[in-house]
Amino acid sequence: MPSSATSNTNGHATSHTKALAKPTVNQTPNAWSFFAVPRPIKRIFDRFPLLTYPANRLPERVQRVKSADGHALFIWCAPEDASENRASFNPACLRWQAFLKSQNLQFHTVSSSNHASTNERLPFLVVNPSCSSPFKSNIVSAHELAKWAVDQKDSWPVELELHYEPYMSLLNNEIRRAWQYHMYLSPNFEAFTAPSYIHSQTNSSVVRITSSWELQKAAREDLMKSSPRIDVEGLYASADRAFFALDNLLKRKRRMVADVSAPSLLEATLFSYLFLLLELPLDRWLDNRLPEIARKYPELVELENTLKKQYGLQPPAIYDALTGTKDSTLNSRTRLEKHFGIR
Amino acid sequence: MTSRLNLKIWPSGDGFPFPSLNVDCLAAIAYFQLLWRTTDNAVNWTIISDWDASQSPNGQFPVLSCSCEKEIAGILNIFQHVGSCDSINGHSDLNSWMNEDELADCTAWSSHVLTLGTQLLDLYLFITYENYYSTTRPAYTAFLPLYANYTIPPAHQKAAEKRTEHLGLATILGEIDDEPRMQPISLRTGGVDPSASASASFTEKIGFGNRKEILSKAQKRMRLESIVARFLEPLEELLGKKRYFLSNKSPSSLDALVLAYLSLILEVKVPDRWAAEIVENSKLTDWIKREAPHIYGNAPNKG
Description:
By secondary structure, chain A is mainly alpha-helical. Chain A contains 14 helices and 4 strands. Chain A is globular, with a radius of gyration of 28 Å. By secondary structure, chain B is mainly alpha-helical. Chain B has one domain (4-296): Glutathione S-transferase Yfyf (Class Pi), Chain A, domain 2 (Up-down Bundle), CATH 1.20.1050.130. In chain B, strands 2-1-3-4 form a 4-stranded mixed sheet.
């Protein structure tokens, strides 16, 4: 049944092209078809031959990504940082950077922004063409990265099974909310967040002002999902409880599993926040409540130290700019200006 | 000197069998009720029903007014405050029996219950079209003054929408299931097209009529079940054969939380009981049936 159907359509197609190819109609009785092109239209197309232009070349950057070794992880970072093994200043990106490193997967980082991503989120990973399968998309978005990493390795790091979900919930809720306040709504926004996310992308002051406003508005709206008013004390109290619990989990894991060298996704996520909070000296933050809380817990400080060395990660360039000067905020500002070419 | 604790909550309405229609307020009541029981009535507390939460630190109830003159909002912050405030008799706290490991677990599991439980109740009471318009909204109307009735419930619904939009379930829960679909209109007579309905009933007669609808119902059910399972299955595993979630002997603030969330889902009277139906199949229902009567049975009178 199906074969006759396809031959039928093929017949139609050939008669159709025949009619197109030759200017005369009704050559053979078979050539007549309902789909034949009417003569006046056909004359127009005879006069204006349809032309297909060759496809544009891919942008240079993509070429570079394709030819480089390993997979390419697109993250938030300063453009000049991308080639080195510098940490992203965005914890969601740094988390995957740390996790892929802990799984010994070869990759390099590419500085990008969320406009480059298909789902407007960073990070995403472009699989090295030599390992990609022709039947799969070679772009792995953030929520598929864990599965993808497992497929590459066929093993999953040790987790305290029952505890994974609730402790991950602490990181995804309590810690993330406090981080959002700390970075976007406290004075740290001016010193750290705006230069990292916005000033590195544009020099136009109008765009900078509107983008800052939008970024802060988005953060505020996100925090207001859980309560109509932002209770700052409550946010930090929750973060304190969460860090206490995570500190305790690490202690227990050390007691139960002798070898703590294979960090899990939970630890990579925890590390991403700790690294960004602890790498900058306390007095450099304009609002240092959250790093102060994190510093209270020895296991957390220890984890940050161990994993930092293990991964060989350096803090984002903006940290150097902020720590370089010892004196006033004015000085750190001038260094920032130099770093990001702000006038 | 006896300490005086005032707990401000949102009141209840028709269809909601408990003292409040808000689950966090219920959790706070459950907590104090358990505390009252375990400390032999040493902690003196009063419930104050109010509708205006604009003075609350986070714009929501429950709010605890402590005798140390602090106002604390947020259910977990309230639990913590009761455990640490000097003005409360003898540091009586539901979690005082815990060691550090148990305290850490309690914090983490509380985050799990709050996040996924709130999400589930958002879907059940605010996003499910029928439930919102026939139960939740009228319950608010019962205690809100006329002008606030036009701002507060829509604001709460909008917040619920925002909290759950990443799940993409608004379209399947927002539609009305049992009402008849839009009737095809006859262009000739201007009324309902009799020929169209006749052909529909004919296809129904031969058994193909509702196939698409049945299929989509099954799919909907499967997605909702997976959301409830993400919430309940880890908790079932945690409870195991113990009497309470973290110990066999003493209740904790986590028990108060789970109790509030699950008993609200099970007992609220809504037309589309999808969440209750799924939860009823869970092992936790027995636990709820055993523990709930102790908790809500004798809450103090409204002050």
